[in-house]
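User: Run a structure prediction on this.
Assistant: Running it now.
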Amino acid sequence: MKERMLEPGEAASAAAIQRALDELASSGGRLVLPELDLELDRSLRLHSGVELVGQGEKTVLRKGPGKVYPLSGYHNYGMADVPLLDAAGLQVGMTVSIHDNRTRGGFYETFATITWIEDNWVGLDHGIEADYSGTEQPCLSTVYPLVWGNYVRGAALRDMHIEGNRAGNAQEMGGCRGAAVYFCNSEGLEITGVTEQDYFGEGLGFQMCRDVVVRHCRFDQNTGNGLHPGAGSTNALLEDCVAEGNGRSGFFFCVRANHITVRRGAFRNNQLGVSIGTRDCYNLVEDCVVEGNRGAGVLVRQGPQPVEVHSCLIQRCQVEGNALQEGQAQVEVWGEAHDLIFAENRIGGGKAGVWISESARSIYLEKNHYHLCHPEVIAGPLGFAYQRPAFEHGYGTAGPAAFRHLERTSRFLH
């Protein structure tokens, strides 16, 4: 693999580092950053076959201050530009987000790169994702992932520390369009040895991705979730990762996050520990520590058929001292979930151990150890399975049909 090591003077700005990444786009290779503490005024974008590598905790990428730029009024879907009241301070190459009060936080928020600026009109590298209403405070803001990739294959991020600087940013980055580290529509990713904290948004997010490996990372003190695989992401392995002190879940399975293994993780002092929801099936959570969260340690969220949670195994986990401020139990199973296995877990620390809603069914409990739970289990008459369900689960078990919904990831543009 081609490797280039940047000297400190060659890594003096985000723009300089991005030029070096772009130079590797055609051939692939590894770009190695020196020891530094650098404030970024824009994202660093990875390309297919490109690795960005630091010197561990001695390489620090720090989110620059965020500023909000009001739009001059209504602007419509698909336009690759936006009109601002004042574009002073913006530069070509900066990465920005655009939304109004109705669209912030979801896939209708736009994340884009500035391509031109003229008379307070700002050009974007693609069209905006929705209509933005003039009566709903539409704006452009300098919020963005610090490192990201879209339609990339075989990219990697390794060995560095990322500071989110949420105190210096006036708006949160929506979790669907961004996170401190973010990938979308991509395949064959590796993220190893990365620590991150204090982002106004989520720590790690990947949407519509497949074949992702995340090892020895931690994502702490963010306003959103710590780790967030979502929007159909399939076949991911997350080992030895930590998420502490996040405003939402430590680990959040979003819509149709399937065939994922979470192993030897630690999720402490978040709003929720591990949250599993709509169509999040065929997943494995094992040998994890889930403790001290304000709500449930493991939450299976509401979901009616045919988008209910099923076919997940949670085993050998320590789920203790959760539900400190809210929730029913250490483990809560809501909606019409079925065919879930909780096996050989240590569950305890107040309230009920396992709470199963009246609508859930066929939940298999095997060799769990309960302590200080009042009561150990609460369930309706159909809540229990008396034979262990059989299903595939976790990283490496997905057949070809499990990826059909991700066909557009074959359009690797970068």
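Residues 68-141 form one domain.
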